[in-house]
Amino acid sequence: MDEELDPDDGNVNSVLAQEFSELLRILRCQPDSVIMQLSQTAASDAAWLNRPAAGGRAAASDRAEAMLEYFRHATTAECCNFLQMVCLLCEDIPMHLESRLMSVAGYDCSTTSCERDEQPLTPPAEEQLTKRPRIDYWEHYKSEVAGLLQRRWKRASEGLVKDVQPDKIWVSIRTANRARDRPDQTPGSAERGSRTPEPDGDYGWPESRLTLESFLRGCAGKVTVLAGQAGSGKTLLMSSLGQQWAEQLGPIPSSQLFVLLEFRQLNLLTAPLSLSELLFQHYLPPNGDNDAKQAIVDYLLSNPEQSCWVLDGYDEFQKKLKRQKVQNEPLDSYKPLPVADLVSGLLNRRLLAGSTVLVTCRVRDVMDLDGLSDKVGQLLSWDHHEIQEYVNSFFGGKDGNLGADAAEVLFSSRHLLDMSSLPALCNICCVYLQHLLHQRRDAEEKQMLEEKEVEAKKKQVEIEGKGAQFPDGVDSRTDSPSKIPLRSIKGEAVEKAIMDFKKSSVRLTGTLAQIPPTQTQIYLAAVAAFLSLYRRGGNDRAETSGFPQSTEFTWNAQTLHPAELCELSRLAWGGLEERKIVFLEEDIPQHTLELSLKAGLLSQVEFRRQDGSLVDAYCFVHLTVQEFLAALRIMTSSDVTDAHLKKKFSLKTRWTTKSDQKTVFTDSLYLYVCGLASSDCAPALTLVAGAAGLKGAKTWVQKRQSLVLKLLEALCRSTALTGPKILQLCHCVQESQNQQLARQVVSVRPTLELRNFWLLPSDIDALVFVVNSVGNRGAGLDFGACSMELECLDALSRCQHIRSLSFHSRKYGDKFAEKLSSILPRFTTLSKLEFCGASLTAVGAASLASGLQNCPSITELNFSDNNLQDEGIGHIADILAKLQNLVSVKLGRNNTSLKAAECLVKQASSCLNIQHVHADGIKDLMLTFSQKSDLNSHRIKPEPEVRLLNQKWTKPDMQNLGKSLTCFPSLSVLDLSGGAWDEETLKALTQFVPRLSISERIILDGSCSSVRCVGVITALLPRCPSVVEMRIRLQDPVQVSVVFSGGREKTNAPSKMLCLSCCSLEPNDLERVWKSLGTSSGLSELDLSCNNLGDKGLKKLLDFLHRLSKVRQVNFSDNGVSVDGVVMLADALCSCNSLTQIYISDGGKDQVKLQFSSDTSQPRKKVFSINKSSLTPSDVNKVCRKLVQCRLSVELEFIQCSFVEKSIEHLRVLQRMPSLQKLNVSHSITSTADALTLISCFSDSRRLSSVELSPQNESFFHFDAVEEDQVNFRLTDFSFKGANFVLLDRLLEILQQTRQLSYLDLSGNQLEDEGVSSLLGSLPRLRVSSYINLSKNRLSPVGLLNVARRLCSCTDVSAVEVSLGDDERCLIWFKQKGGGGKTLSVRDSMLQRDHLLSLANILSNGLSLTKVELKNNLLQSEWIENFVAVLNSNQRGCTVSIEESWISDDEAARLLRRCLQRSKLIQTIRIDHTKLQLVLMNNTEMSQDREVTLPAQLMTKNISFFSNTLGVTGAELLCSLLPSLTNLTSISVGIKDSPVSVVEELLHVILVSTAAQRLSLSGVVISDAAAQTVTKLLPRLRSLNMAHCAWLAAGRLQLMEALKECTALEDLCLDAATQLNEECWGCLAQALRNMNALQILKLNEIVITSGQSEADVVLELLAGMEELTQIQEIELGGWRMADRGIHKLTGMLPVWKDLRKISLSKNLVNDSAGEKLLEALRSCSRLEELHLSSNLLGDLSAASMALVLPSMTQLAVLDLSENRIGSEGLLSLSRAVMSLKSLQKIHLTSVGDSALRAVAASLSHCPFIQDVGFGWNNCGDDVAQELAKVLPFCHDLARIDLECNSVSAAGVEALVIALRSCPAPQVIRLWKNNVSLNEAQRFNQMERRLNFSST
Fold first, then answer.
1. Residue 1238: left (phi > 0), alpha (psi -120 to 50), or beta?
2. What does the pLDDT look like over 1378-1399, one tens digit per residue?
């Protein structure tokens, strides 16, 4: 390569001049240190050396140029020395240039005669000796690489259809996206007027593009990534780049070493290796020894920028590259490393830093290289032109006549066209089309030959026939053709041309019909086409027995080649399982290898083993072919189990993350599996499965297809799929061709949302398939930041059932809109179109408007966040009237001005269905319309609203707006808020307002700027009669609203309201306001609050009041009114008849409100209220003396006020005020002394009716017009403790001087024992008629005893209730109705033994003590025994009840026995679970009946024992006790879980040892032996109760038979005897006939049967009752007797004159039967209880009750729960309840209606009511509030049930307030109401008797 220099060719200076530009380029790339050394070769006086140095690369470049220019004219010696230094010091010098320079420099130096005085500077000798060989080895190795690349290209380019031209290959630039790991949804538009920034759509892929050659320029020293889809030709392009480099062409500089490595080959390198081993063993070994290798490596390491590393196919690499942290430490290039680490080192610049690296991969794998690459691009798919070129080239040879047909077929099939966008798949499509068209041509040729033969035979027959008919001498065979007319020849030619065209069209149609409908089926057909080439041995002529020439595609064994497919699918599946795409020869069976190579399905590649040897390897022509064949294996081989299939079956997203698992395949496997699940593929799959030897292939294939469809269906139902997965799901459904699955996709997600990825026409086609499946229901498509070509819209146009269509991205501009507008009319069902957040301008808006005109079904348009400007808005506005179904239009954030809003208002005025016009500055612009159905309906159409907010109005703009607004027939709201207006603009508005028809309001917030503007606006009140309300506020925020008559709820009397709050008005400004109002403003409400008016302004207002004849309310708050103003107001209250209420707070500085009455003819109560004020004696005196003069009724309020010094005493003057009705001092009296002072002021008033004082709650004095007999007195929550104890005497003194007290409530006053004792001492001198409440006074057990002692000693006290628990209850009740009994109740008091004994002594000495209740006092058994022993009876006898949790089972039996042993006064003893009840005989009665010396046990007559269980010990105690009770007449036992033996033993003892006449055995098991004992007892029994007993068969019949003989039985209870049969019922009916003395009969729930027999049993039993004339109580619940039974019963009721109780629950009693029943009950005048729950009673029955119940004057219990009574019935019932003066209990639970307010109100007429049940009726607060009103009148009311209703906190609040003065109620149930948990807890703290729980 070196050439000698001829001296004649020039000297060294001329050579330097010739190579000047090349040398300059080399010097510019050298480091500064080299330039400095070269500079030293020049003379020290050189001018360029003395130039001032400048920084940067530009200065270095200028220095190098100056240096060359100097040596170009220097002496020969200097120039030679310089060039030698250049060759030795500089890097990157081409070999040919370096050889020339060294040669000429050495020649000239040897021949020159001039010698330099100084020795020239040279590099060290070592460097001079080693640099030259390294360069030579490097250049030789580059030459060898060039040869390798040329050979590789020659092999790769064999059979290429089209030349590879990098300057015609297009690449799109990708901007690096390192901000996030995964793209998500498109961000929403910013809330501002400017357009939103474009989101990072498609994960960084923009729309710009450039050629591959341009893209690779400037990539030297950088890491460049070239991405592309599988099959886009990346590997071929890299090989082409290598070939161009070898020829010193292309974008890769020839000076660099081109290293081309394929990742698919690197996969097979498992052992670690060094950089040199990678280069020399697996790329190209050099021709030389180890020295040559070392020299090359040394040069490479010292000059890394001289190398270009092309790493092809990272997507096929089975390992992920390590993302290394930033490290400056380079890798050791000599150290063996895994190949992945070597590649990572190159990319991370830790190995060969400065080298050029080019990596190719698929798009999804760019994520792995993110942050490592300097430049990324994507190969664009072929467009239609490039596809056409390839098809022409493919068929350009001998098949050229088929090229046009092939292109037409390809462009007519969307699947073939989509596949052809990739070069590799385009080749497959062409092979398939070539095969298909050859078949068609062969079939046509065959058919043509057959037709010609048939035609020839026909002509021969015709000729022979005509020859016989010609005249003699004429030979038809010699007749000249010229005799045929010319016209006939031309006609035949035209006809032939037409026939040929028709045949061509038919051929094309037939060919298209043979194209499979899915991509999967195309692959199947294409692979079959390749195999057909193998069958033909490569011959282009197809066999005539190929694909059938039918009108549709079918499969058969000849076309499919199932055996070959089976072999190939096995190979593909094996590679897929092992993640292998390159197969060595030993991996493939020989037959399969030959088959695949000849068919063209496998391609051959070279591969270097680990030892560097070259071997042949093979791969499928495309990865998708391998995946398709693997899918075929899945669907045809039992080797792939169902579980394995489920594992492989999943959707892959196009959003990739750095954590995704690396895969070498395209993830299309599941897509082909879905395609093969189509029913169309079943025949083909059956053939392949049969070829694989699968038995029952058809059935097996069907099961496998069903499994795939089932898996696909599960994905269709999933709601957690992202946009990319939804799209892939659509592809799968399309491949399956299953319409039902497609409908399932849309049913789960009616709108398909797609965000941030690239869309292809094939993607749109998949969406079209899914959307079209839903029919007229339609579906929505929402595209956000998805890039798509315009041809995607062509595919979208095939979508017939789009309901909504949305585009959100700056990618979508005017061109996109223009294309979209052309297809919009095809969407006949489109109702919503969104084109927002895009790049739309007025041009695009015009295009869309033209297309939308032909979309009559459109209802919603959204073009917000674009750049339409005013012109674009005008285009949209022009079509509004043409779109009759339009509902909403959004046009905000479009860079518009006020003109756009005015344009919309003008156009909207002509639309009859316009509803809203909304504009907010430049942000929001929206219109809404009413639906067409609303216009056609009879409903009143709402009037439109116009809201133009935050606009910059001027007077001309306002005038223009007024003209547009007057075109509206009517408006509801006109909102022009925002923007500061001047007075002229405001006047312009008020001028056209009277001409507008506005029904609701005008809003001008932010418009008024001065007080003068107030007058402009208020003038509208008299000018516009329809204006009813005006609100103006000038302080920030400025608010102005004018309300018209239609904007207020309809009222009987029209009213007008003017609010001038916060307007900074001065007193003088009021004159201007009065002037604007005129004389007839008709104001009813005036608000002048929050101004600066003061007392002067108040005076002007009061003087102006006479002109406001219709005023109802004036608000003068926050105007700085002083006390003098308050006095003026008090005077006005007295003098102005219409002024009814004045409310003042903070002495007039805060709130001042005046209320007026509309009717002055009727005197009304007046209220003067002062709140939150500090009152001095002078203030109180002035105000009160003014108010005393008022002649009308007055309520005076001092709420939350503080009385300074002796201000309270000045209230005494109010005693002289006869008009005073109420004095309210709530939250104003906080000290005990002040409270007593205030009470003393009115203690001698005869009109005082009620006093209620509390520092925490309401406090007031009530006065009546006439003198009252009684006073209600409540003084609570004060303190009489410590120093205040002396005040108690003063209180008692006041109370003793007071008239009769209705009740006295002193709860919560901290009286403690001492205070309570003092009060009890004064009790005889206090006149209290109802009760004294001493609760929450910290009473101790000692105080409790004092209270009990007062009960016993005071004759007027009737009852005492004491509880020392949490509720601290202490009530002393007084006799009201002349009753003589006394009751003591002690609960939760933790009494000790001594306390209990003291209580017993107190009670023993008490008079008329009738009842003692001790509950939950933690008493021990021994204490109770002592208590019973000490207790003596009084004159009237006494009932003692003791309840403790431990009283049960055996312990209860022991207690019962000991009590009987300790007391001789016990007449009745009862154990009821945890309660012990004793009835004591008084001493007088005992002395008359028995001698005192008789044993105590003999006195007991009644004993009851009810418990859940009873053990052996307890049974023995009872059995041993009973014989000693000789006077025992009544025994009751109820043991739920008692053994049979216990019952038998008890009955035996009763039979033998007692003379019991009354026996109760409830809830026990009656054995046959026990039944026999009962049978023996029956003759002497007068009462028998066997409720809820379980009998054996023989025993129950025996008992029923025995009952026939019990004629003296007075009481019989067999409740829930469900085991009775027909024979027993017959016996019972007969027994009832014999029981003439029966008074009580309880047979609830005994008839349990169905059908006709049930009715017969009921009638038979009722017939047995006909003779029961003495009956008093009868219970027949649960009989379901219905009409027939009720009819029978009503016939007997008139005979039962003594009936007191009847229960007919659950008897199917309807209204008709209910009326008859109630009518029959008229004769039962003594009836006390009526139970009719759980029936079918309704309003008619309730109406009958209103007529019948008033005659039942003794009725105490009424139960009508669970019926169907409506509001009318409840109203009738309420009238009946009013007359029930004896009513104690009423249950109306779940009666079916919530209108119970009237019933609640009627309870005030029932003074003895105790229990009210209104649960489960959905009652509201009205019922609760009504009950709160009733509570004070019902002194005995203990329980109210309101559970499961709709009572809110308001209703509960009313109950809490009522309970303060009502101590009798024990519980109010409020479970399941509209009260939150926090509110319930708050109410419980206020009142513990409220129960919000379920128990």
1. alpha
2. 556 788 999 998 888 898 888 8
More confident residue, 895 or 105: 895
Q: What are the C-alpha distances in Å from 1672 to residues 342, 1614, 1641, 1693, 1730?
A: 108, 16, 8, 11, 12
Residue whose pair of structure tokens reads 């409310």 in the numeric block: 1143
* pLDDT: which is higher, 472 or 889: 889
Other Cβ atoms closer than 10 A to 1301: 21
User: What is the rounded average pLDDT of the residues 578-605?
Assistant: 85
Mean per-residue pLDDT, 483-489:
41
Q: Are the beta carbons of 1364 and 1339 closer than 8 angstroms? A: yes
How far apart CA 1554 and CA 1557 sit, in angstroms, is 9
Best CA proximity match to 909, nearest among 918, 917, 898 = 917
What CA–CA distance (Å, rounded) separates 1823 from 1277? 30
DSSP 1029-1084: EEEEE-SSSPEEEEEEGGGS---SS--EEEE-TTS---TTHHHHHHHHH-S---EE
Alpha-carbon span 882 to 1166, nearest angstrom: 63
CB 175 within 8 A of CB 198: no
Tokens representing 1419 are: 């008493």
What DSSP designation does 272 have?
-
- pLDDT tens readout for residues 42-59: 776 665 565 555 555 566
pLDDT tens readout for residues 492-540: 454 554 455 445 555 556 566 678 888 898 888 888 888 887 665 544 4
Contacts of 479 (CB under 8 A, 6+ apart): none
Q: How far is CA 1622 from CA 1432, 1625, 1646, 1650, 1653, in A?
A: 54, 5, 11, 12, 9
The b-or-e profile of 688-704 (16+ CB within 10 A means b, else e) is bbbbbebeebeebbeeb
The confidence score (pLDDT) of residue 871 equals: 92
pLDDT attached to residue 397: 64
The one-letter amino acid code at 452 reads K
CB 1607 within 8 A of CB 1576: no
Listing DSSP states for 1696-1732 in one string gives: -TT--EEE--SS---HHHHHHHHHHGGG-TT--EEE-
55 Cβ contact partners less than 8 Å away, ≥ 6 residues apart: none
Structure tokens at 731: 């592809």
Please state, in angstroms and as integers, the Cα–Cα distance from residue 1307 to each residue in 1277, 1315, 1372, following that order.
7, 12, 12
Contact of 242 with 149, CB cutoff 8 Å = yes
Query: What span, in angstroms and rounded, lies between the C-alpha atoms of 34 and 67?
Result: 13
Q: pLDDT above 70 covers what percent of the chain?
A: 87
Total Cβ atoms within 10 A of residue 607:
19
Closest C-alpha among 931, 847, 861, 758 to residue 229: 758
DSSP line for 625-679: HHHHHHHHHHHH-TTS-HHHHHHH-----S---TTSPP-SS-S-HHHHHHHHTSG
Tens digits of residue pLDDT in 1062-1078 = 888 888 888 888 888 87
